[in-house]
Amino acid sequence: MGHSLKILGRTSSINVRKVLWTCHELGIEYVREDWGIGYTPTQSPEFLALNPNAQIPVLIDDHGVLWESNTICRYLVSLYQRHDLLPAEPAPRARVEQWMDWQATELNPSWGYAFQALVRQSPEHQDPQRIAAGVQGWNDKMGLLEQQLTKTNVYVTGDEFTLADVLIGLSVHRWRMTPMEHPPYPAIAAYYERLSQHPGFQTFALDGHN
């Protein structure tokens, strides 16, 4: 399938790397432009015309403009009809999307304060009590993933690698690499080792990213 594709966003963004790893799984060629912190600001009129939320990533292709990383990943997988990554049947698809949405709406917000404090060293995020609460909340959410992986024993939704593992795999890497207390979650540890065998994970998680 011929498909002209441009991705706007810096690779230090975990949300950009969701899209890049998805492209890797699909074998898609793309052009990427750096936007965001340290690069051209997303508050510029040019960028706001593409995404009024001023957030990366943004995808531009033959069909138009898309923003929101999970939506972009769903779109690309559906466009290339990779039903192994996102099933066509409603019930198995919903199980994958359930965990994708959990990553975006529950897990992702849980690390905000602690990650800014401990990794980004943000001066505005140095309240010890809020850091401790952030670490606890983050670990609690990861405990839910531990329960799920204890049930499935392989990947997030079962025996097969899916799009949910792209999103959650990057999140697991961020959690492990953040200098804080980590509960001994054996199912997550085994999951992380399993993901480490995937070339996409090696490129977009292990290769110096957090």
UniProtKB/TrEMBL annotation:
<dbReference type="InterPro" id="IPR036282">
    <property type="entry name" value="Glutathione-S-Trfase_C_sf"/>
</dbReference>
<dbReference type="Pfam" id="PF02798">
    <property type="entry name" value="GST_N"/>
</dbReference>
<dbReference type="InterPro" id="IPR040079">
    <property type="entry name" value="Glutathione_S-Trfase"/>
</dbReference>
<dbReference type="InterPro" id="IPR010987">
    <property type="entry name" value="Glutathione-S-Trfase_C-like"/>
</dbReference>
<protein>
    <submittedName>
        <fullName>Glutathione S-transferase family protein</fullName>
    </submittedName>
</protein>
<feature type="domain" description="GST C-terminal">
    <location>
        <begin position="89"/>
        <end position="210"/>
    </location>
</feature>
<dbReference type="InterPro" id="IPR036249">
    <property type="entry name" value="Thioredoxin-like_sf"/>
</dbReference>
<feature type="domain" description="GST N-terminal">
    <location>
        <begin position="3"/>
        <end position="84"/>
    </location>
</feature>
<dbReference type="InterPro" id="IPR004045">
    <property type="entry name" value="Glutathione_S-Trfase_N"/>
</dbReference>
<dbReference type="Pfam" id="PF13410">
    <property type="entry name" value="GST_C_2"/>
</dbReference>
